[in-house]
Fold this protein.
Amino acid sequence: MSDKKDVATEQLIKNTAKKLFFGEGRFNATTQEIADEAGVNRTLINYYFRSRDNLFNIVFEDAQQKEINFTDMVVFSDMPFREKIEKYLDMYFEQAKEYPYLEIYMVTQMNQGSCFKDPEQISRVLDKFYLEIALEMDKGNIDKMRPEQFLLNMISLTSFPVSMRPLLQETMGFKKEEYDRLMEERKQIILNTLFK
Amino acid sequence: MSDKKDVATEQLIKNTAKKLFFGEGRFNATTQEIADEAGVNRTLINYYFRSRDNLFNIVFEDAQQKEINFTDMVVFSDMPFREKIEKYLDMYFEQAKEYPYLEIYMVTQMNQGSCFKDPEQISRVLDKFYLEIALEMDKGNIDKMRPEQFLLNMISLTSFPVSMRPLLQETMGFKKEEYDRLMEERKQIILNTLFK
DNA sequence: TTTTTGTTTAACTATTTTGTTTGACAATTT
DNA sequence: AAATTGTCAAACAAAATAGTTAAACAAAAA
């Protein structure tokens, strides 16, 4: 069986869709645009994915799984708390270079009816993380608050400047390079803000 | 001249569009959907706004202006620094009830080519705010960092949990009411995080 | 070599969405 | 009373997009 050429093209189409959605924020890309960007005939999208909707759903679920694996890797890694956070920041900013609009995409999709498929898996990770946060508060390394609020703080400080970059960069009057530099400083800023 | 009925309907259509875009995150609402939601004939949208694109642009510019006025009001108000931040938080969370997706909408629009029309006005406000932040750092009320980073922190901590609510609420496994309660606690959390 | 498979091209259909036109009608203005 | 204005309804034209089908072909597999 030819397990190769077809899988490659299918993957190419999926990756191109991801690039357009998560990478460039073009959430309304048409099948034609996706095909063009992939350098592939538009009919192939139907051939492999049957319908546009189906492709969108598959990509959405991929993104979900990616996010879950991402947090999993951090939370279940065998590291001291603070190092975990640092690891998370590194990984996040790394992925953000390729897919800055992943979260916004998820929100827009969920506003159109999509939802998560495996809540179990998530809450398992979260519970463990909340425990660790609480422990860290007892040690006095971070301010006391509901662990959920700490998590919100962490995600907010990290994701927002990435997801909202077009808006922020323009609002704050930065050039590309200036904003890039701001982002590079950001890891340390976030650590200082989270840990007292 | 009848300065009334027509202006009212034009406004109604605009408000309905805003409600769908900023309020419900339905960024792809069709003219038909907008008309239905407004309880008005679809042709009226063309009658008043000529084209769908035009309506979208007008709404976008309205949103811009709204954001500018918003920050203006806070920054140029005659209050001590910390109270300004509190005022900002109050106003933001208040508006968030009506238009939680305003920022995301702006980002999606800007990813499709829109941009700000009056950068001057913005930088005037920002410069003043940066000065105040720097001053506050000298006083030792907040950690030293580039004022831009402080601003990023502030906006991130505030906006992210609002804009990304569908994603976060689902991810964190909250019911509506639980997330609402989390948001109510949030003002104090943010203040504690920003000020040392 | 023959067959199968992945891919392209092109033509065509269906559906959705936008935009236009026209005629009617009620309310308001003149 | 007559004219104007805002609104609606219905029908239609035009464009954009999605999806289907069939014929052809090259590369890989049999």
The mean pLDDT of chain B is 93. The two ends of chain B are 59 Å apart (CA to CA). Residues 1-2, 5-6, 9, 40-41, 43-44, 47 of chain B lie near DNA strand D (CB under 10 Å from a C1').
